[in-house]
Specification:
The complex is a heterodimer of chains A (110) and B (116).
Chain A: E1 4-7, E2 10-14, E3 19-25, E4 32-38, E5 45-51, E6 56-59, E7 62-67, E8 72-77, E9 86-93, E10 98-100, E11 104-109
Parallel strand pairs in A: 2-11
Antiparallel strand pairs in A: 1-3, 3-8, 4-5, 4-9, 6-7, 7-8, 9-10, 9-11
Chain B: E1 4-7, E2 10-13, E3 19-25, E4 32-38, E5 44-51, E6 57-58, E7 67-73, E8 76-81, E9 90-97, E10 105-107, E11 111-115
Parallel strand pairs in B: 2-11
Antiparallel strand pairs in B: 1-3, 3-8, 4-5, 4-9, 5-6, 7-8, 9-10, 9-11
The chains are: A mainly beta (110), B mainly beta (116).
Amino acid sequence: GENVEQHPSTLSVQEGDSAVIKCTYSDSASNYFPWYKQELGKGPQLIIDIRSNVGEKKDQRIAVTLNKTAKHFSLHITETQPEDSAVYFCAARGYQKVTFGIGTKLQVIP
Amino acid sequence: GAVVSQHPSWVICKSGTSVKIECRSLDFQATTMFWYRQFPKQSLMLMATSNEGSKATYEQGVEKDKFLINHASLTLSTLTVTSAHPEDSSFYICSAHFWRDGDTQYFGPGTRLTVL
C-alpha cells in the first residue's frame, strides 16, 4: 500500500517568515495530493490540493509543488501569521484510498 | 467548499454502553463517506469506507462488529461503537466525498469520545 512520509514533525518560524513542509510517497499510481490544516479539537480542513498533471499550484500565501519523478511534494506558506499555527497533514490518494502523513505542528511566533 | 457535520461533538459514556455518532453532508449528496480515528498528536487512521446502500469496507485490524457503520442515505452515515471500553476513547472524524468535486474529501469537525 501507499506510504507517506512527512517532515519536519514540528516547525517554528517567526511571524512573516516562510514555512516549508515536505512529503514523499511510495505509490507511483497516486494522482491526488491534498493538504489539510487541523486546529486543536477540530476536524481537518482542506487548504490546497494538487493533481498529478500539475507541477505547482498557488492560492494566495499558500503554494504546493509536486515532483512526480521523485515522488515528493511540498507545502509552502509565505508571510506566516499567528493564525497559521496548527497541525498540517499531507496526503496522497491512490486507488480509492487517501493515506495521510504523520503531521507537522507549525508554530508561528509573533 | 462542502459542509460536513458530526453529532455529537463530544460524548462521555460508561464502559459497556454503545455510542452512536452521526455524520451528515449538509449541502451535497455524498457518494462515499469515510470514518477515521485519531489518537492525540497522531495522524488520521482510516477505519472504514462506506457507500450509500451497501456494506462498509473495513480496514485491516478494525473490528466490524465493534464499530458498526450504516450509510442509509446519501447525506447520512452513522458509526456505532458497541460495548465501549476505555481503550475506545479517541477522536472520531468522518469525511465525505462528493462526486462532482473529483477526489476531494470534506471532513467533519470530529467527535471526542471518552469512555469511563
